[in-house]
């Protein structure tokens, strides 16, 4: 043993990272191992995104990064320097009015326990943008013109939201709520 060795493990690497979270700039000293979900929930107090499986399989942690939906439990926060992160809390309008999808979920009673709902809503917001940009899904008609907006029929909605699980089985009402917004 080296006479200078204290026996303590070296501190994990940290980096200063600046994110815009729900429109607000945040500069943070981040442990390189910290995932976005833990940063949002534990450091910033934004508890909408939920820790479901912690393996990127359930979608309860879905948020938007630069407008694209992501599983925040898998994304290292330090990789997001300069990114725009939007959580379910940030979807409301400037006057605090609910996002149209939030309103539709309430009107359609598109949840039971509500645990998956923030991830479902963020995923639906991202899905609407993807379809509008012409990104095909597994069920998109191969004859559909490339790059044109994809028509969101029920099968498209269900396929595009299939990465977000609901243990209560509220899928029909979730699809109804999305249909109400398109």
From TrEMBL:
UniProt-recorded Gene Ontology molecular function terms: 2 iron, 2 sulfur cluster binding; metal ion binding; oxidoreductase activity, acting on the aldehyde or oxo group of donors
Domain 2Fe-2S ferredoxin-type: 15-91
UniProt pathway: Alkaloid degradation; nicotine degradation
Keywords for the protein's UniProt record, in alphabetical order: 2Fe-2S, Iron, Iron-sulfur, Metal-binding, Oxidoreductase
Region annotation Disordered: where it falls in the sequence: 1-21
InterPro entries: 2Fe-2S-bd, 2Fe-2S-bd_dom_sf, 2Fe-2S_ferredoxin-like_sf, 2Fe-2S_ferredoxin-type, 2Fe2S_fd_BS, Aldehyde_Oxdr_Iron-Sulfur, Beta-grasp_dom_sf
Superkingdom to which the source organism belongs: Bacteria
Protein name from the UniProt record: Oxidoreductase
């Amino acid at each position: 043993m080296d006479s200078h060795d204290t026996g303590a493990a070296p501190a994990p690497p940290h980096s200063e990272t600046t994110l815009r979270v729900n429109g607000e700039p945040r500069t943070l000293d981040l442990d390189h191992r910290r995932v976005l979900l833990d940063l949002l929930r534990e450091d910033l107090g934004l508890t909408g995104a939920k820790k479901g499986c912690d393996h990127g399989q359930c979608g309860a942690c879905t948020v938007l990064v630069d407008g694209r939906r992501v599983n925040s439990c898998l994304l290292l926060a330090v990789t997001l320097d300069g990114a725009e992160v939007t959580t379910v809390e940030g979807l409301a309008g400037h006057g605090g009015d609910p996002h149209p999808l939030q309103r539709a979920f309430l009107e359609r009673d598109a949840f039971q326990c509500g645990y998956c709902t923030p991830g479902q809503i963020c995923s639906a917001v991202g899905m609407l943008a993807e379809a509008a940009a012409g990104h095909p899904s597994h069920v998109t008609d191969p004859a559909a013109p490339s790059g044109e907006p994809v028509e969101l029929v029920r099968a498209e909605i269900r396929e595009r939201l299939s990465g977000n699980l609901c243990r209560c089985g509220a899928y029909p009402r979730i699809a109804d709520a999305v249909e109400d917004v398109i």
